[in-house]
Input
Amino acid sequence: MSGPAESAFAVLTPPGRGGIAVIRCVGPATEAALVQCFRPAHTGPERPPLPGHLAYGHVIDAEESAIDEVILYNAGACGMRESPAAPAAGSVTAGLAAAGLIFEVNCHGGPAAVRAVCERLAAAGLREVDADRLMELEGLPRIVRDARRALRRAFTPLAARILVDQLNGALAGAIESLRRAPAAAVMDALLDRWHTCGRFLADPPHIVIAGRPNSGKSTLLNRLVGAERAITSAVPGTTRDYVEAEAALEGAPVVLVDTAGLGEAGGEIERQGIERARQELARAAVVVYLVDASEGANPEDEAVLRSLGDRAQVVLNKIDSRLAASQRRARSHLAISALTGEGVPALVDALLENLSWRAPAPGEAVPFTADQAATLAAARDHLAAGRIDEARERLASLLG
Ligand code: GDP
Output
């Protein structure tokens, strides 16, 4: 079994101030480098620790002075091989694991401590790379690398759960079965799951909240996010620019955008805000267009709505106000009170329906990158045209 020729490390934790930083080291020279720069606090027979073990100690400089207090973990025998998505015995990672050549240094998280430890590891012969390159050096399968990358960005617990299922082999298992026995219906089901779920994980759709100043856009965004993210005020035009907020609608990851009012531009700042709002509208998957129920839609609203076409969901807001009562009876649109929350669950249902969101069952295979979906679609086309070997090839490329 042979590992990569290159020995490298990457800082896995984000830059900034924090309690702990994790630096992962991979490659044949790792152990020799750690023998040089790590001293355990309690001397034992093994230095560095055995696979699967931790050792408390210090990273030291060439004069044996402590640079930082660390916990060193030998991940060489980590659980990779137990996972269905794990590399087969004999692959690079299995080789590394057997040789015990994956270590993690847990040092203090302050930027100076991290830099000092990194410089010491570099001086001991390891090259600094980014986390993506390190995953390649480890020989991790493509789906596992993609899932780890997506997990870094996942912001709803459901999205994280779905990605962990894929990390644990749900998608790899489905593709492996398909490669052995290509079946159009199974491919269609996977492509459907891309459309109803996976694409939300790859690139959460933008839901733009639009409407005239004072129609209640900021109040609705705050209600949907569940926090005071946008500043609301009774003075029209308070939201000068746009506010973006990541939110979970019944677990579905979406980005909510509260635009500046599309009304008359008073000054230069408002004019720029309105221009940005128009740009945001252009990239929106759905536009929630709020109309103050006490005022009703005016010709300006009608013009914006015509330009938005099918993507616009007209929503009457402020149905709690007394003035709204007559308007409310006259309309068939969704009607809410962003202030009290009345009608908001029905709006959320309508939005998810509009976006075709469907949460998968636990453990279900979900393609979660645009590239996976395109490769699957290409395999599906080959199969439909009777080119089974080409279909198999495409599927195999996803497992690389
Ligand atoms: P925006 O300019 O469209 O972002 O509007 P805001 O969210 O800042 O709301 C403007 C004013 O309308 C504020 O005083 C809100 O409290 C009020 N408002 C928003 N939604 C409702 C609602 O559903 N009912 C009532 N009665 N007032 C609301």
Summary: Residues 20 and 109 are 4 Å apart (CA to CA). The pocket of guanosine-5'-diphosphate is lined by residues 211, 213-219, 232-234, 238-239, 261, 317-318, 320-321, 337-339 (CB under 6 Å). The first helix runs from residue 30 to 37. Confidence is low (pLDDT under 50) at residues 77-92, 94-100.
